[in-house]
Amino acid sequence: MSGGPLAGIRILEVGTMLAGPYATMMLADLGAEVTKIEPAGGDISRQVGDSYFASLNRGKRSVRLDLTSEEGRERLGGLVAGAHALLVNLKPSAIHRYGLTYEALRRWNEGIVCVALTGFGLHAGDDPAFDYVVQAATGVAALTGDPDGPPTLPGYSSADNSTGLTAAIGLLAQIVSGRGGQVEVSLRDVMLSQLNYRAAAYLNDGVEPRRHPNGAHSFYVPAQLFPTAEGHLALFVTHDAFWKAFAAEAGIEGFPTMAERVARREEVLSAVTRALAADSALSWEARLRPWGVPAAAVRTLPEALEATPEAIVTAGDFRLVANPVRVAGYTPAYGPPPGLGEHDEA
């Protein structure tokens, strides 16, 4: 499968920064031909840094178009005529103003799939919708952190990345349908969707989510971070067999059922904390692995990357994290990120 599972699929991208470019890069890794349409000054992410831009745009082509001009929109139409899909990551007003919707572009290609990736919806206005803002607005920040501390944001762009992956699914689903049309994906809707069981508990049972210390799970006990003699350990005991194996290794007696562990949460957590204090996080990870107990020492990103060299690839002059989709018989080429306007003439 030298060309990849998406070989022959041609995708146009009018995107900026993260969510849209990440979506199309995932597709480019899998063999799609992705053409990044940029203004004269380029995607503003080029100004953030070369490695930042490369991490979202490897393996693409770059064409400069002035979509504010009639000539630029005509040239876009020519590209649309030969493409399967267009993914746009702009404010709704800009998407409509530049004619980047299916209704505006179908005259060039009835089969074109137009994906609008926005903050709140294609017809919901232009309220700012950056990653952290959306996490705050959808309840994610309020769910994160210790109960006595302030709301907390994760150390990476979880809303942008999640929405990019969802947009890629929507784009491929419509292509597989064999029909052109408009697809919408918003950061708000994606983050609410990812609160699935939390939202269901509130909507159906009136259970308002609350934070537990050390990121503890609301249903499973013990399932959280624990301090050890050296470092922290993430332990995730979801059923009684896991508990039996862990308790035997840790020398803890009692609490044999999930119901009892939930009912006696504080006692269980105290017993586990005392036991784990006797050894380091890395040692506990090694001791529990043969038993199949879900546990991992908390690592820094550099430590995690060093431990997984198979996840690192080379794209031109850059070392980057590989596409997480592994397809039997196919190895992505991982081309370099394009220079601004590199493929104007082509």
From TrEMBL:
Cell cycle listed as a keyword:
no
User: A single Pfam family, by name?
Assistant: CoA_transf_3
The species this protein belongs to is Actinocorallia longicatena
**Entry annotated with the keyword Transferase:** yes
Print the keywords alphabetically.
Transferase
Q: Which InterPro entries does the record cross-reference, listed alphabetically?
A: CoA-transferase_III_domain (IPR050483), CoA-Trfase_fam_III (IPR003673), CoA-Trfase_III_dom3_sf (IPR044855), CoA-Trfase_III_dom_1_sf (IPR023606)
Q: Which GO terms describe its molecular function?
A: transferase activity
Name of the featured protein: CoA transferase
Domain of life the protein comes from: Bacteria
